[in-house]
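New to this. Explain these tokens.
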Amino acid sequence: MRIEPEGVERDIALKKLAGLKGLLKEMGSVLVSFSAGVDSTFLLKVAVDTLGRENVVALTATSPTYPERELREARELAEEMGVRHIVVESNELNIPGFRKNPENRCFYCKTELFTICKDHARRLGLSHVLDGANLDDRDDHRPGRTAAREHGVRSPLEEAGLTKREIRFLSRLLGLRTWKKPSLACLSSRFPYGVEITEERLERVKRCEEYLHELGFSQVRVRFHNEIARIELDPQEIANLLDNNLREKIAQRFTELGFTYVTVDLRGYRTGSMNEPLKEARTA
């Protein structure tokens, strides 16, 4: 993963970091919607360094779509930063319309999350609720951005013009172990729009991905296509599947978990692959 910028690129990233700190200073006190991903961890760290621990709170909402290992890391990171961390139980599957998995599914999820965040911020006397959206997020189908605007949630990384690559570089500069962490998305993103999301299906996908991580794969997605599991891996790791023994172990485990067929996407992992049909339909 190449994230080390040179010359002017480095200066631009540092200038954007200074701009981010300026935005946070103007806000005074914040509640950060915290998933333990690259972006929200970086945002939380800069907020703590800029505003002080007494003016920053992290909030993580747990649910069937949020992997347990991420919750564990969220707790660890918040403790390392010495910031107050609120964990709230949530369940998107109880939200009317969410299970049916429409194209604006993310809007329902983020609406509930930001409602929770706003309520806690109000009770704690914090001025702003922040999320970790960055400049690159503008390039994908993101209904959750509508929910953020409707709830007055700020996205200071995007406002400061920070890209994912710059955030990784600056995270490394700040000593955050998440600088090289694989991209994170909730488990509901593994399902094609219109395919019903259930707890059983979420559990199946989760356990398949956990198994691939146990085998040493880093960037992993298991996309659910009814009886078919479509595996997306870092392109550099696809070659590992040439090992017949490893490939057979994966197929056997996935079959045990309820899939009839196991496939590998030759294009590898890419952000928002489930949104590709939407883009194709809109450009047709």
Notes: The mean pLDDT is 91. DSSP finds ten helices and seven strands in the chain. The radius of gyration is 19 Å. The chain has two domains: 8-180, 187-283.
